[in-house]
Amino acid sequence: MRRHKIEFELSIFDSLEELPTEERRLMIMAVDARGMAYAPYSQFNVGAALLLDTGEIIKGNNQENASYPSGLCAERVAIFSAGANHPNAIIKAIAITAASEKIKVGSPVAPCGNCRQSIKEYEVKQGSPIKLLLMGERGEVYKCESVADILPLGFDSSYLG
Ligand code: THU
Q1: Is residue 6 included in any domain, yes or no?
Q2: Residue 82's pLDDT band (boundaries 50, 70, 90)?
Q3: Is the pLDDT of residue 161 over 90?
Q4: How much distance in Å is there from the Cα of 27 to the middle of ligand 1?
Q5: Residue of 85, 82, 69 lying closest to 121 (CA atoms)
Q6: CATH number for the domain that contains residue 60
Q7: Is residue 2 one of the residues assigned to a domain?
Q8: According to DSSP H, which parts of the chain are helical?
């Protein structure tokens, strides 16, 4: 029997103002996207902004549905939009933020399992990591160098041969 420990590093910034300019700008775009979320059922508004290697920023927000499972998270709205409209661009980073109309979202919000899997697909496709910037409504920002870090032992195309 062998034991193998999987660790990853998170950088924690006290606030948006502490981030380097390009990353701060990206998170501000995610906040902007958050404000346009369609979340009448959960009132949990999520915004995502992707930075492409072309310098372009692609935004997304959660889109809910009266038939709940038909809705989609902000991260997948954004990443599928990038995949559909900029298929050859490299995605450098994704900023994610959430605010609720019912409770205070005081700590950074991390993508759900389905979104981690979907973002990871594009890391594998492009052969380079996608940086994650995570924030609640405001306050601390977590930076993570790759989505693979938060999806250990993940499944990808390499298993399919
Ligand atoms: N949501 C996201 O948009 N991203 C996440 O990573 C977690 C959850 C959305 C889905 C749903 O519209 C609402 O937040 C409550 O779960």
Answers
A1: no
A2: very high
A3: no
A4: 17
A5: 82
A6: 3.40.140.10
A7: no
A8: 21-34, 74-85, 113-126
Instruction: Determine whether 140 is an active site residue.
Output: no
Strand partners, 100: 44
Of 75, 123, 137, 145, the catalytic one is 75
Pairwise CA distance, residues 47 & 155, whole Å? 26
Question: Within a 10 A sphere around the Cβ of 86, how many other Cβ atoms?
Answer: 16
Tokens linked to 87 = 């298929």
Q: Give tens-digit pLDDT for 85-127.
A: 999 999 999 999 999 999 999 999 999 999 999 999 999 999 9
- In our burial notation (b when 16+ CB lie closer than 10 A, e otherwise), range 6-17 reads eeeeeeebeebe
How far, rounded to the nearest angstrom, does the alpha carbon of residue 55 sit from its chain's CA centroid? Answer: 17
- Using CA atoms, how far apart are residues 138 and 37, in angstroms rounded to an integer? 17
Does some domain include residue 30?
yes
Boundaries of domain holding 43: 11-151
**Count of domains in the chain?**
1
Atom of ligand 1 nearest to the CA of 63: 12
In the DSSP assignment, the letter for residue 109 is P
Look at residue 62 and tell me whether its pLDDT is greater than 90.
Answer: yes
